[in-house]
Amino acid sequence: MTQPRRVLITGGNRGIGRAIAESFVAAGDSVAITSRDGSGPEGATAIACDVTDSASVDAAFDEAEQALGGPVEVLVANAGITDDGLLMRMSDESFAKVIDTNLAGAFRCVRRASKGMIRLRHGRIVLISSIVAVTGGPGQVNYAASKAGLIGMARSITRELGGRGITANVVTPGYIDTDMTRGLPEAQREAFVAATPAGRFAQPEEVAAAVRFLASDDAAYISGAVLPVDGGLGMGH
């Protein structure tokens, strides 16, 4: 039987993050999640954390390591926000806050997690990006830039820490059936489905399965990779 691993998922209280957390819990791993309000799924230790604040991130990791009984072995950086708007009308604040949460927030978490992983000489880092990282999206200059940055981050981590038994990979989900996408106008949902070769939205559990694979021993020789879970929407990128 595989030994339970110590897993931390940021933004693990809803949507894709929650599905990822529940998947690791179901696999028998020891799971902590962070969220702004400290809520989370059953079976996981829920910790309040603001990924835009280094002190909050460090405190959350301290609490997680205490609860899990040691350094985090698997980090899934999923916390993210959107603040869409047309380029000409996008404010400096709108651009900066999305970058600070989605990209710099992931950096703060990876930096803290890497300390324990280096000591262990083992670690799995999975960064949750988006299809728009490779395709772009109208009204999403800030979001696409933040999510594309995660690819460069994972590849730099791979070159820096790959010899220490640490992998860093990126998952780029397409359109996923979550509360957020269920709130879209029906015509927009139909257009997204029509653009996707698979002809449907993905379930959050399908993203979770890809993340769990990249965190597994079977993926020990995969690093710096971008794994699309998009039904073929991003082919050619």
UniProtKB/TrEMBL annotation:
<keyword id="KW-0560">Oxidoreductase</keyword>
<protein>
    <submittedName>
        <fullName>SDR family oxidoreductase</fullName>
    </submittedName>
</protein>
<comment type="similarity">
    <text>Belongs to the short-chain dehydrogenases/reductases (SDR) family.</text>
</comment>
<dbReference type="GO" id="GO:0016616">
    <property type="term" value="F:oxidoreductase activity, acting on the CH-OH group of donors, NAD or NADP as acceptor"/>
</dbReference>
<dbReference type="InterPro" id="IPR057326">
    <property type="entry name" value="KR_dom"/>
</dbReference>
<dbReference type="Pfam" id="PF13561">
    <property type="entry name" value="adh_short_C2"/>
</dbReference>
<feature type="domain" description="Ketoreductase">
    <location>
        <begin position="5"/>
        <end position="179"/>
    </location>
</feature>
<dbReference type="InterPro" id="IPR002347">
    <property type="entry name" value="SDR_fam"/>
</dbReference>
<dbReference type="InterPro" id="IPR036291">
    <property type="entry name" value="NAD(P)-bd_dom_sf"/>
</dbReference>
<dbReference type="GO" id="GO:0030497">
    <property type="term" value="P:fatty acid elongation"/>
</dbReference>
